[in-house]
Amino acid sequence: MRKFLMIALNTVALLSIASLAFASDAAPEVLGNIMWGSAIGMAIAAAGCGIGQGLGLKAACEGTARNPEASGKIQVMLILGLAFVESLAIYALVVNLLLLFANPFV
Amino acid sequence: MTRIIQKIEAGLYRRGFVHEETRILVRNQLALTLVVVLIGCIGGWAWPRLFDFAAGAVLASWNFYFLSKFVHRVLEKQQAAVTGMLFRFYGRLILTGVALYALIVMGGSSVIALLAGLSTVVVTVLIWAVTRMRGKNIKEA
Hints:
- The structure holds two protein chains of two kinds.
- Chain A has helices at 2-22, 28-66, 71-101.
- Chain A is mostly helical.
- Chain A has a domain at 29-102: Up-down Bundle (F1FO ATP Synthase), CATH 1.20.20.
- Chain B is built from six helices and no strands.
- Chain B has helices spanning 2-14, 20-43, 49-77, 81-106, 111-118, 120-140.
- Chain B: Keywords: Cell membrane, Membrane, Transmembrane, Transmembrane helix.
C-alpha cells in the first residue's frame, strides 16, 4: 500500500513539474494543474483540520466528564490547540488563494 | 490602557467568558489587535502594509473570539460538540476565505503583512505562556 502511494504521489509530482517546466507562459495545462493542486490542497487541509478539531473536542469533553475539576485547564489547552489547528487551515487557505489568484509564477 | 483592558475583560465576562484563563487569553488577543489597529490607522497612510497587518490581526481575533466562545459553551453544556465544531469550523473558514479573497485579490494586500497579522494569535499564546511561567516561578520561590 505504501509503495503504491509513493509511486502515485511521485507520478503526480513529476507530472506537475514537467508541465510547469515546458510551459513558456500560462499554458492551459499549467492553469489546470494549479487549480487541481489548490483544490486538493484545500480539501486535505480543511478535512484534516476539521477532523483534528473534532477529535480534540471529543477528548476534551471526555476529560471534563471524567474529571470536572480539571475543566479549566482542559479548556485552555483545547482553545490553544484549536487556535493553532485553525491557523494552519487559514495558512493553507492563503497559499491556495495565492496559487489561484495572485500566482507570481504565472 | 489598563482601563481599556479592564473594560474589555468586563465586556467578555458579560458575554459569557466565565473561565478566567480563557478570558485572559481572549482579552490579550483583543488588546493586541486594538494596538495593531491603532498603529495601522496611524501609520497605514504612509506605509499601507500596516493596514494589511491590522486586517490580518482583526481576522485572527475574530476567529479566536468565536472559537473560544464556542468552546466555552460546549464544555459547559456538552451538547452536539463535534458536529457543532465541524460546522462552525467550516463556516468560519468560508467567511475568512471570502475576507482574504477580498483583501488579496481585490485589495491587493501584501500577503506577508496579512500572514503576520494572522499570526498574532501565536504571539498572544506566547505572551500567555511566558506570564504563566513567570507566575509559577514566583509562586515556587
